[in-house]
UniProtKB/TrEMBL annotation:
Disordered: region residues: 154-216
InterPro entries with a match to the protein in the record: CBM2/CBM3_carb-bd_dom_sf
Amino acid composition bias (Polar residues), ranges on this chain: 193-202
Domain of life (superkingdom): Bacteria
Name of the featured protein: Cohesin domain-containing protein
Signal peptide: 1-36
Keyword Membrane attached: yes
Listed Low complexity bias regions: 179-192
Keywords: Membrane, Signal, Transmembrane, Transmembrane helix
Membrane-crossing segments per the record: 226-246
Length: 260
């Protein structure tokens, strides 16, 4: 007796696979315990009490005793005429992505975990650098904090936390030191005659009337003693004339021998 193998249509196999995967996923979801919403009770802000226009300072925001935080968004109220955000200065907890942007009078600080990174627990720290733009007292206030848990649930804190910074103007440039000039006594009278004269500029060594080199090892010498060069040139000229005469005599003897 011959047995025949029953073939199931491909669509039936695909449907059964999807149904099985869905059933497994549903069972795992039901079996997994529900995650609690992220928690935090307060926010702390720390900044120096004094700063100077044009010199950046660090602002620290701390979320103490947080639980199950996968991401957070901090809204910082800051007058753009008073401070500006330093590009790429934001830092946050290790193992995540951090970003900070300034828009009008708000600075947004965002952190999120990546991939399958676990949620955070404990004290969470964020930091940005700000540049003072004008002298005066400026207040930096966290007006809103949003926490996102590993299951997508959110917790929002609206209790403000702030820090006040007294900004001083830039230091004036140091004026030049006043007093008697160099080469003068306290009364302002020069202690020596100025260098140079009406006919010889200062710093130039005069050349003697006999054409000799300046004394004292001066470097500002542009003349040259041409006598050695003239003698060498005459010697080369005489050597060339002698060679020319020898070659002419040799050529003449060769022509006379050929004629004989």
């Amino acid at each position: 007796m011959q047995h025949r193998t029953l073939r199931c249509p491909r669509a039936t196999v695909v449907s059964a696979t999807i149904a099985a995967a869905g059933a497994i996923g549903l069972s795992l979801l039901v079996a997994a315990p529900a995650s609690a919403a992220p928690t935090a009770s307060t926010v702390r802000v720390a900044a120096p009490t004094a700063a100077t226009v044009g010199q950046p300072f660090d602002l620290d925001v701390t979320i103490p005793a947080a639980t199950d935080v996968y991401a957070y968004e901090i809204t910082l109220d800051a007058d753009p005429d008073a401070v500006s955000l330093v590009d790429d200065s934001v830092t946050g907890p290790d193992g995540g992505f951090d970003r900070a942007d300034q828009d009008a009078d708000a600075i947004m600080i965002v952190h999120t975990r990546l991939g399958t990174s676990p949620a955070l627990n404990g004290d969470l720290d964020a930091e940005v650098s700000l540049t003072p733009e004008a002298a005066g007292e400026t207040t930096l206030t966290v007006t809103r904090l949003v926490l996102v848990g590993s299951d997508g649930s959110t917790t929002t804190l609206a209790d403000p936390a702030s820090a006040t910074v007294a900004v001083a103007g830039p230091s004036p440039s140091t004026p030049p030191t006043s007093g008697p000039t160099a080469g003068a006594d306290p009364t302002g009278t020069p202690t020596s005659e100025p260098s140079g004269s009406a006919t010889t500029p200062a710093g130039v060594t005069p050349v003697g009337t006999d054409g000799g080199r300046p004394t004292g090892g001066a470097l500002a010498w542009t003349g040259a003693d041409v006598l050695p060069w003239a003698a060498a040139s005459l010697a080369l000229l005489g050597l060339g004339a002698a060679l020319f005469t020898v070659r002419a005599r040799r050529a003449r003897r060769e022509r006379e021998g050929a004629a004989a």
